[in-house]
Amino acid sequence: MFLLHAGRKNATASAKTTATTSNNNWTKLVGINWADARDNFVDGWIIPSGIDHSGAPEEVSRQADQILSEFQRLLFSGDNDTNHTTNNPHDNYAFTIRLGINPATVLNDDWWPRYQDIIDRAVHDHGYSVILACWEEASHRNGRIDNPDEFWKMWDKVVQIFAGKDRVLFEIFNEPHGCADEQWRNWAARWVDRHTEHPPHTAVNATRTPGPDEETIPILSDKQRILVSGTGYSEHVTTIAKDKRLDGCRLSFHLYSWFGKHTRVESWKDELDRRVGIEHAPRTSVTEWGAPMKIRPNHYYCSTSSNNQSSYGDDGDKDGHESALAMSEVIRDWKMGSIYWPGLRDGDVYSLTERKDTAKNTTDTRHLWVTNQSGKARLQWSFGFYNSAVSSPGMQEKGNDQANKTCKM
């Protein structure tokens, strides 16, 4: 079985849960992406923002510890608020960090041990679940697996290392937009067949007996640790969900405002129903969604009015406001996983946190601040936190009318 710990040992909302393949008992993955400042589409090593890749292993570990602690303090704690509860006290969720990998990162003997230590510290010292997602390199960026030999070498190595660590999950390939639907499903099915055994066995890190020309291939016993991206820019999961070869795997879905031209929250909800479908929601994690954070500070407290138009007004959703509101509501209502893009990425206007040195507040590069408190509240609302219709403890006393006024500031 797939055992997940939600948050650090001392986290306000921490929990220890066991997920099964029951449609109603998938552990929700809730958290953030921690990304390279250059984006994770890079030629060479992926280096999470705030990490000095030139540092000695112990220095990289110290930097990672500080940033992971800041995520916990700023985004995953209850802020000592008594309303920091889930709508359903029986909801299972796991605080999650999504990190990028590529062959250059994993197959390099210099950087990989330090990167692996970041992953291990997130899991063992800070209690997070970690999604390791494969990004293609910048020089290709065509939505295809361009070097299958390196792709398989990378994944064989990663699964071998982390097969016995239940809180590490594996996202086969990010945004396979260069593959036709059937072509991508065949790639995913091949990955699942290579790294799982049929029927499932009891040993987590058992290995399939290799053929005469094969090396030993690591095996997973739980498909819930595998995420299969939707087709296109991970934007449609319905055909993936219906492929029997991928039964038991999680589905990875992305949504951004440019995926549609809606100006109403309800229209975005209808769009999500077409792209995901409520019947597939329990196994779906929205591994990327977001909107600009360095704009009107109360922007995302907004509720919807009786005509389903955003209380901010008809702006064509040019800033992603309506899609972000809809995404948070649908994630919460459908109990999907919610991984915001990005929790930290230097220089990204969507980033929910920023390093204080980049904000010129201090010379300490690993202390963070929240760029938009209403955006944080909207993210936590998607997790299932709070019971108010307005998604922030600070707004609960003011009601929707005041929220709408504040929204227009």
Q: What do you see in this structure?
A:
The protein has helices at residues 57-76, 103-106, 111-125, 148-162, 181-195, 231-234, 238-242, 265-275, 321-334, 373-383, 399-407; strands spanning 2-6, 15-19, 28-34, 93-101, 129-134, 168-171, 207-208, 217-218, 226-229, 250-255, 284-289, 337-344, 353-355, 368-370. It is an alpha/beta fold and 409 residues long. It has one domain: Glycosidases (TIM Barrel, Alpha-Beta Barrel). The strands form 4 sheets. Strands 3-4-5-6-9-10-11-12 form an 8-stranded parallel beta barrel, surrounded by 4 helices. Strands 1-2 form a two-stranded antiparallel sheet. A two-stranded antiparallel ribbon has the order 7-8. It starts with a strand and ends with a helix.
Outline the secondary-structure elements.
Layout (H helix, E strand, L loop, with lengths): L1 E5 L8 E5 L8 E7 L22 H20 L16 E9 L1 H4 L4 H15 L3 E6 L13 H15 L5 E4 L9 H15 L11 E2 L8 E2 L7 E4 L1 H4 L3 H5 L7 E6 L9 H11 L8 E6 L31 H14 L2 E8 L8 E3 L12 E3 L2 H11 L15 H9 L2
Helix pairs in contact: 1-3, 8-9, 9-10
